[in-house]
Amino acid sequence: MDRYSPSELEPKWQEEWEKAGVFRARRDESRPKYYVLEMFPYPSGRIHIGHTRNYTMGDVIARYKLAKGFNVLHPMGFDAFGMPAENAAMEQGVHPGKWTYDNIATMRAQMKPMGFSIDWSREFATCDPEYYAQQQALFLDFLEAGLVYRKAAVVNWDPVDMTVLANEQVIDGRGWRSGALVEQRELTQWFFRISDMAEELLEGIDRLTAWPEKVRTMQRNWIGRSEGLQFRFETVGAPEGFETLEVFTTRPDTLFGASFAAIAADHPLAKALETDPEIAAFNAECRRMSTTEEARETADKKGIDTGIRVRHPFDPDWELPVYIANFILMDYGTGAIFGCPAHDQRDLDFAREKGLPVTPVVSPGDEGFTIGDEAYTGPGRMINSRFLDGMEVEEAKSEAIRRIEEAGQGRGVVRYRLRDWGISRQRYWGCPIPVVHCPACGIVPEKKENLPVRLPEDVSFDRPGNPLERHPTWADTSCPACGGKARRETDTMDTFVDSSWYYARFTAPRAPTPTDPDEAAYWMNVDQYIGGVEHAILHLLYSRFFARAMHRTGHLPAKAVEPFDALFTQGMVVHETYSTRGPDGRPRWHLPEEVERDEKGARLRDGTKVEIGHATKMSKSKKNVVDPDDIIRNFGADTARWFVMSDSPPERDVEWTAAGAEATHRHLARVWRLVRTIASEEVREEAPGEAATALLKATHRTIRSVTEGIEGFAFNRAVASLYQFTNTLAHTDAQAPGMAQARRFAARTLAQLMQPMTPHLAEEMWAMLGGEGLVVTAPWPEADPAMLADETVTLPVQINGKRRAEIVVPRGAGREAIEAAARADAAVQKALAGREPRKVIVVPDRIVNLVI
RNA sequence: GCGGGCGUGGCGGAAUGGUAGACGCACGGGUCUUAAAAACCCGGGCCUUCGGCGUGGGGGUUCGAGUCCCCCCGCCCGCACCA
Predict the structure, then answer these.
(1) CB A329 under 7 Å to nucleic chain B
(2) Does any strand B atom come closer than 7 Å to the Cβ of A213?
(3) Which nucleotide, over all strands, has the C1' atom closest to the CA of A212?
(4) Of A209, A254, A214, A514, which is closest to residue A389 (Cα–Cα)?
(5) A31: Cα within 13 Å, side-chain hemisphere
(6) Minimum CA–C1' distance nucleotide for A536
(7) Which chain A residues in 108-167 sit with Cβ < 7 A of strand B?
(8) What residues are paired with A244 via a beta bridge?
(9) Nearest nucleotide, C1' to the C-alpha of A660?
(10) What is the model's pLDDT at position A556?
């Protein structure tokens, strides 16, 4: 080879790694393990350059830890169940399974040329019957442990597609696919009891110190703990069965500021009152509003007086009106509140609307304190509050709770925003829920020996609805308990279930049980998890719940209840957009390869001027996409890997540019040529001269900075110091005393330090330089502390904080010596102009500051 | 509204409270070449010089602030009628 040719050397080295089996992970109690995992992809069709960045980061860590002597587990799989496969089935008539497995084959074939250090022998897809069989076994264990239950719940129902929709799939009250008006329906569904673990999941966050603060905060907010008082109002004039009204409040201190009570439109009492057509109409209106995000944001406070009254808990003669109001949510607290307008903005808006009294009960102590259009929510002392008067807010809260508890009207409680996790989906392409509905025995779990409950192959998607439900025979079965005729559950599990435990399955992907205890004990936890911040809440919270549930059911060790020790959320790869105006005035988007750029701007090949848009997330619709296959073909995998690690810090977005990719490739070619030159140089036994020593020192400094960069997830800084080192090395004179040896050592070290980022080129360099074995298995170089320090240091000398001179002094020189050297400097003397400094600050090896 | 983060050259970005702008991209100049590309070398924050000014703006702490504190402005992300 006479030039850098990635298309030749990359496949060659991948073959060598494969032959040596260097990425095959085996349990080895004698070595410390390291488990690095990137969030596995959904097989949507093709790999995206964003995936490439994500997996390269994980690969850099994995290869670095391998070199550091860890027994590394770095697996990959596919999150393969989900809606897009069914959409493809409806649109193209292809079976979801075929569509999915074809995509997996494509994406695996795209990933392999990237040279990732993945143990492919552990690969699985969540739609593999071997995987979902174990998921069904977990479900049965959870059911037995009381972690799963069934209840009726209100869902968004699309009457055309005949399916349940997630809130995100409802746009302006209509189904995102069908456009049909979405109905609220009550269906009996399966739930995981995640809310039972709310406190545990909340407390656990405190220990996740290697997670981004942002994600921890998001999870805390999502769990949404609040302390307060739950109590019963006595009602006056309510229908039978509603003698009391239960409400929740976090402000029991403001009870004497109450001027009304309000309930949600879905509250049982509100429903009971629907015999009144006016109330029925109001409730219907509220329900409709609740499905459209936009309406909810802008909606005014509305309410309807029920005519019912409630007695104040501290004064039976004090009655408050009860409204049905559009801003009360049925699924938080008890779906009923008492309104204290002076100290809650929503209550105040509502009170102003309805002309209700506004009584301040907390005073900040200011002169002339009144409530205008803004509620007062700050601290202060109680006023207008009888026995609470004069107390601070916190004290008043405790006292109010104590009195209510004493009177037996309620109690102090802790509430969470976190709801139980509904997992039933009326879909085909998901994991079947392994239970049977028996007319005699009711709900009966399937026997474990009958797992998996397999999805049928012969299904059609020509009609809306759930193909499992309308399959002629699939649901027909016998009851595992009585043996009589019974019907299978036709709902499948939410695909978030699949991804909630795959990390555990990777530790023993072929085990006949969900996990293998020895393998799980050895490999868990995931030491470093890497993925997009879009999974900050749901996936990561569900996984934390699952790990706990798997521990309770004996599938994971206690240490694994927090499965991810460290989390890193990486930024996206973005690209600028190119558009022209179509005849209809709308923008027409163009692929990067259709556009020619110069200093004046960009144009199409036919000369049409192109408008350049800001770099945004790559999307097919805006055509600002880069296909990794093209990059590999043109420049090689190492260029793609080096590029996505350069410049931008990994947590931020990186902008892909064609010019940047070319420049990266040129740099790698330069490294290749430099190493080839050095490899051809004859090495003589020779003591290192001054220049050779300087190079050796630079080498050790680079070892330190690259190591720190990788350890600290600052790959861009590691790359920068490698650029700098390459420049230093290239400018050395091979003829200088001892330089041939120093250059060879430097070049070998360069190969080792580049290996995590550009593994193929690094192997080639290593081989050219006569390195032993593969560089991927060579131990990581250690920086020699003795080689890190120079004998002299250059210190800036400041006069009044402004830099006026530089002095060179021996490293570790004392304060007196440094001060003397500074005073002796000509520039310093000029600046001092004979004046005597009032104060002298000397920080050895750092700086001198003279104050005059 | 609540929470989190960010603001540094033309651009991406460096900088344990200690020489702001490392490194890269783009740009300009040069060497080589018939020419171009590649390769190699050199250059640059701003202002008119001595010198001064510079990290969104304003204050403060400090011998010394991009970094710490207070106030303000702008941008990004998440949650959102949560009682």
Answers:
(1) yes
(2) yes
(3) B4
(4) A254
(5) 16
(6) B78
(7) none
(8) A234
(9) B25
(10) 98
A414 touches strand B (CB under 7 A): no
pLDDT at A293: 46
Structural tokens at position A814:
């004392």
B82 closest protein residue (CA to C1'): A332
Nucleotide nearest A252, CA–C1', reads B83
Give bridge partners of residue A597 from the DSSP assignment.
A602
pLDDT tens sequence across A94-123: 999 999 999 999 999 999 999 999 999 999
Give the pLDDT of residue A593. 76
Nucleotide nearest to A262 (CA to C1'): B83
What is the rounded distance in angstroms from the CA atom of residue A466 to the CA atom of residue A477?
18
Q: Which residues contact A24 (CB under 8 A, 6 or more apart)?
A: A119, A121
Per the CB < 8 A criterion, the answer to whether A614 and A623 are in contact is no
Locus of tokens 């990777």? A506
Backbone angles phi, psi at A386, to 5 degrees: 50, -115
Q: What is d(CA A504, CA A37) in angstroms, rounded to the nearest whole number?
A: 11
Quick check: A221 CB within 7 A of strand B? Answer: yes
Residue A70 burial (10 A CB sphere; 0-12, 13-18, 19+): middle
ipTM over 0.85: yes
Q: Which residue is nearest to nucleotide B16 (CA to C1')?
A: A846
Contact between A154 and A167 (Cβ < 8 Å): no
pLDDT of residue A168: 62
Six-digit token pair at A40? 């596995």
Q: Which residues of chain A have pLDDT under 50?
A: 293-295
3-state secondary structure A665-725: HHHHHHHHHHHHHHHHCCCCCCCCCHHHHHHHHHHHHHHHHHHHHHHCCCHHHHHHHHHHH
Tell me which H or E stretch contains A34: strand A33-38
> Which chain A residues 792-821 have CB under 7 A to strand B?
794, 796, 798, 800-803, 806
Question: CA(A54)–C1'(B21) in Å?
Answer: 29
**Cβ of A383 near strand B (distance < 7 A):** no
Residue A148 pLDDT: 95
Per-residue model confidence (pLDDT) at position A294: 45
> Which residues of chain A between 573 and 592 are close to nucleic strand B, CB under 7 A?
none
Angstrom distance, A221 CA to B7 C1': 27
* Model pLDDT, residue A298: 54
pLDDT at A839: 83
